């Protein structure tokens, strides 16, 4: 059982995992509770762990990287073509693993906590600027009608 890629479909409490080998053969499919996921990954031989890039994937990627695993984050719209049949969590995990095995796949970079903090500040500032602009335009329109 030589797992090269583990695809992880992230969720709130229950995660679905799919392990594939270098030939793309599915070696296991597992359902894992949140509190057991890190222990499971820590006990796996060093391999590639792939996830869809989402709000929690950066956190999990940093945790998995502590155990020397290679991390690949994939934008969700790039995973969608690899879902083979009906959408369910196991099929999603398998699609993530398959997408990660492609040579020309584009991956989302892993961010540090500091980078995520700065990104949050930029988003908050943009929202404040947009809010101020909406208010100025509304006031301008109000005074033009008077």
Average pLDDT confidence is 92
> Runs with pLDDT <50, length 5+?
none
> What is the strand arrangement across the widest sheet?
3-2-1-4-5
What is the general shape?
elongated
The topology string of helices and strands comes to EEEHEHEHHH
The number of domains: 2
What is the strand tally? 5
User: Major beta sheet, specifics?
Assistant: 5 strands, mixed
Tally of contiguous helical segments:
5
CATH superfamily assignment of the largest domain?
ATPase, nucleotide binding domain
The first-level CATH class of the largest domain is given as Alpha Beta
Gyration radius, to the nearest Å? Answer: 20 Å
Distance between the termini: 77 Å
Task: Return the structural class.
Answer: alpha/beta
CATH topology of the largest domain: Nucleotidyltransferase, domain 5
Indicate the CATH architecture of the largest domain: 2-Layer Sandwich
Helix content: 40-55%
Strand percentage: 15-25%
Description:
With 146 residues, the protein is an alpha/beta fold. Helices cover 46% and strands 21% of the residues. It folds into two domains: 96 residues, Nucleotidyltransferase, domain 5 (2-Layer Sandwich), CATH 3.30.420.40; 36 residues. The longest helix is centred in the last third of the chain and has 33 residues. It starts with a strand and ends with a helix.
């Amino acid at each position: 059982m030589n797992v090269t890629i583990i695809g992880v479909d992230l969720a709130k409490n229950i995660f679905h995992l799919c392990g594939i080998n270098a030939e793309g053969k599915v070696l296991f499919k597992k359902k894992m509770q949140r509190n057991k996921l890190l222990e499971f990954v820590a006990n796996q031989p060093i391999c590639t762990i792939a996830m869809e890039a989402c709000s929690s994937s950066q956190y999990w990627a940093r945790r998995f990287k502590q155990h020397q695993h290679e991390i690949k984050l994939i934008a969700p719209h790039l995973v969608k073509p690899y879902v083979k049949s009906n959408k369910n969590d196991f099929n999603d995990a398998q699609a993530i693993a398959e997408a990660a095995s492609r040579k020309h796949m584009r991956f989302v970079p892993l961010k540090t906590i500091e980078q995520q903090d700065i990104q949050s500040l930029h988003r908050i500032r943009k929202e404040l600027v947009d809010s101020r602009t909406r208010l100025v335009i509304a006031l301008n329109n109000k005074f033009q009608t008077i």
